[in-house]
Design brief:
This protein is α+β, with helices and mostly antiparallel strands and 648 residues long. It has 19 helices and 20 strands.
Amino acid sequence: MPGRYQSPALEDVAIRDSFWLPRLKTNYLVSLDHQYDHLQANGSLDNFRRVVGEAGGDFEGAPFIDANVYKWVEAASYALATDEMPTLKTKVDNVLSLIEQAQADDGYLFTYFMLGDNSGRWSNFTMMHELYCAGHLIEAAVAHHRALDDDRLLRVARDLADHIDERFGPDKLDKIPGHEEIELALVRLYRVTDEERYLHLAGYFIDRRGRDPSPMAAELPELEQLIDRDSFSEEQKESGWSVVGYQDTLRDESGAYDGLWAQDHRPVRDQRRVEGHAVRAGNLYAAVAAYLQEVDDEDLFDAVERLWQNMVTRRMYVTGGIGSQKFGERFTTDYDLPNDDAFAETCASASAIFWSQNMFELTGEGKYVDVLERILYNALLSGVSLDGTRYCYSNPLQTDDEYHRNEWFYVACCPPNLSRVLASLGKYVYARSESELRVNLYVSSTVETTVSGTDVTVEQSTEYPWDGDVTVELSPEEPTAFALGFRIPDWADRWDLAVDGEPVAVEPTDGYATVEREWQDGDRIEISLAMDPTAVVAHPEVESDRALAALRRGPLVYCLEDIDNSQPVHHLILSDPDSLSARYTDSVLDGMTILEGEASVQDLEEWQDALYRPMQSVTESATEFTAIPYYARNNRGQTSMIVWMRLA
């Protein structure tokens, strides 16, 4: 099943959206600069300088800290594809020089071992993340090459990929990465080099996983000795790099290796449910979907589709967050979605976006973009503060007034990961095949592309997500027949479409309302998506959400914070869902549509001297509440927050 749809190049998409453009500018001008300063301060860049002799001292940070540098380069490269920023480009060039100089003559590059005992190379796959870091270097190199038409980093990536290809694969060293990432990177490297051995190696890593005997299971008995040899610092061990932590995640209750945490419990094509570490899982299945765009494998497709369905129908938060348990940052069981200690790591949201996008490109089905949109506007966007300087590693759906964002983390994978998604937003807005153009995300923008052999300019205008009206104007170089599809989101129960002012009745197919005709210069298409506030409830098996409702409008999930309400939010009872109303206001944060409604609350005075009361003796009084988009939570100081309200 070769891939059906492709995204236009980033430089061909110009975003001028009132919602997204300020966030992209903050990402480019604030977050990337802020992250660079932290990479300087926490030793990430100094580790490379130590390798090349430009700095002294011991290795700093978690062993896989190199990956944060590579993710930052990838994000910055996307930014430079659409905006000229000389200061940022200078920083990128300086980092690239460090990476080039640090690479070993044989192509190896992993500063932890290059600064320590070289005999540790390629010996501790369970923990050391060498292939994970290599994958992020390759992805950064592909992004930099495509954005700036520069081969500097791509040459480094190819040398490293060749080094890996010489050592791993059939009839070579039989190992798999403890943390998936190399698989997706190799597919992307294949696409820019046409070197089929990179694609074959990606396929090897995908298919070798979960087969007996497991290379990771064989390594586990030696894990304690490997850790002792690698001399982890106390700070590293306290941050999760401990024998106990890894053994507990990799073993079942009886102490036997089960492989679930690392998606190594059975071959991918035989897996039934998304299991284990959420980021690892998302990275692996995103790679499988990308790999299937290049090869035909019906069994593998059935598996990755089955796993995606399991995730979104049984193991995903209403915000799009995934990975419900803090210990192991992992999936647990179907419908286990606690709110107050939800993990929902920001990096996991990024991996689920990559997976969903690759599934869309493979199949053309809008349901994958529906989920991508939900994650993007909620779980992912909530991971960074509105000013672009503070982050969330986890994204719970209920917090007390002790919860706060952080400027940085010891394991700082999330900030640059989030930045690379935001910086590449343009590639998610549109998609095309040979004779069809699709509008996937409603974002004011211009795209220049080619459909049916004709150059076409598309101008999209909208106030989404605050408003569901979208206008698209076409400028084909000459009159051309092609299909133009508009995604009808799964939340939209009413919508209208018109071409040049004339209503068009069309039944959606695969989630798209598609009009096929000969398009002329100046043709204008208008689509209107009803955006009524809605109270949604969870599946009855989700114990944490029984007798509760969440508020949603359009693609946005809403939350309630104490700062906006006269009563503690966890006391509020949604008494009348029909009372919900939406109102745009400039007075809340950076301007947004808030939801307001009627609620009831018990009289706390009645409970002064009682722990329990007869139900019929409890009185309630009417009150009103205000809800804000979930992405905007925790931006006005520490305050309690809920997503799920009690129902009357």
